[in-house]
Amino acid sequence: MKVKSLMDTKFLKIYPEYSIEYTAELMNKTKRFSTPVINKDEKLIGWINSIDIMVISDKSKPVSSIMSPVEDVILLNEEDPASDAVKKIVEYKVVSMPVLDSEKRIVGLVRNCDITKTLSKMYDIPVYNIFKSLMGELKGISWDELMESAAIVTKQTTGEEITGKEYEVRIKNSTFGQAIWSCGGLEKFFTGLIKIGEVAIARKVSCKNVIKK
Amino acid sequence: MKVKSLMDTKFLKIYPEYSIEYTAELMNKTKRFSTPVINKDEKLIGWINSIDIMVISDKSKPVSSIMSPVEDVILLNEEDPASDAVKKIVEYKVVSMPVLDSEKRIVGLVRNCDITKTLSKMYDIPVYNIFKSLMGELKGISWDELMESAAIVTKQTTGEEITGKEYEVRIKNSTFGQAIWSCGGLEKFFTGLIKIGEVAIARKVSCKNVIKK
């Protein structure tokens, strides 16, 4: 995934000759905390922030007089990996970042709320789907057998008495995000799943052995 | 994980009788885009935003004249699950949210950048650790056997010729986040992991059979 698939290509364009007053009005109307200042060639020349505007008394001056220079702006390139956007948001605690193309033209903005949305979407995968994948891999194990194995592992790890059917109900409305938070971390969640797969295989093998005997 | 473990308990307190000018100065000094307005009992009575302040010309008025009323503020309770904070940030696209205790006093703020940090930290888990957990579960399988199985699965799925040692080098610097982005999703990553475990077990079993024979 690249930065360009995270960015918003619709953004407020402020030109350096705009007055601070007009810039403030535009930002207020579009609900922008900060926005890029660009020239006629769509090249980024600065950055303007509502925090800086709100303490200015003479708003008739051009916005260029109070913008942050381009050297101080946290930038992204459209071909950068999306994980770079996450790293920069976390490191610099910015609300949004401009994205440039190979010719240094601004082509979009990556906003913190869009990153949160993308990250949280990954956590929104139903646990149910992960179990379906697990079943697909464990060839010959039925859904009911998998749920029973999950109930056995739950009993072993938490002491809780639960049936396979009850386990199924529990995971039906649970997401990956909720599961890792309640397990106490990603590694524990994976370990639990692997254990379930292992128990399912072990039960299958022991059944076959019984039949063979 | 609860909201209270995500929140920042140090935040800027604005009282309703503060002038807009003084509020703007305090917010500028502490670099806050928005902040709570509270009364003497620490109860939340409104919310103030740099976007609203920057278009005000007469800043001598009290901040209460332009704050958003408490009914319009997106709130969290300290005992809410942390996932509620993520959901609200994504739904309402806010930069930060006040957190209340059971007596409706404000006890902290949850900021979007803190949520991004927490979410991204989960993605920063080294793939190496996940394989170590997998090995712990697959009793009797050595690290080298696991890496060889991973190389076999890689060959099966991508056609790429890779040795167990090369696979080990690859995962050494890779995080869970990078892995799921490069696999094309969590389910595919997980399916691959299960496949690797399965191949490792199958090879072990077939070796034992050979020895038995």
TrEMBL record, chains A, B:
Coiled coil: none annotated. Pfam families: CBS. InterPro entries: CBS_dom (IPR000644), CBS_dom_sf (IPR046342), CBS_domain-containing (IPR051462), UCP006591_CBS (IPR016486). The keyword Repeat applies. Keywords: CBS domain, Repeat. The keyword Ribosomal protein does not apply. Residues 7-63, 67-127 form the CBS domain. This is Signal transduction protein with CBS domains. It comes from Methanococcus vannielii (strain ATCC 35089 / DSM 1224 / JCM 13029 / OCM 148 / SB).
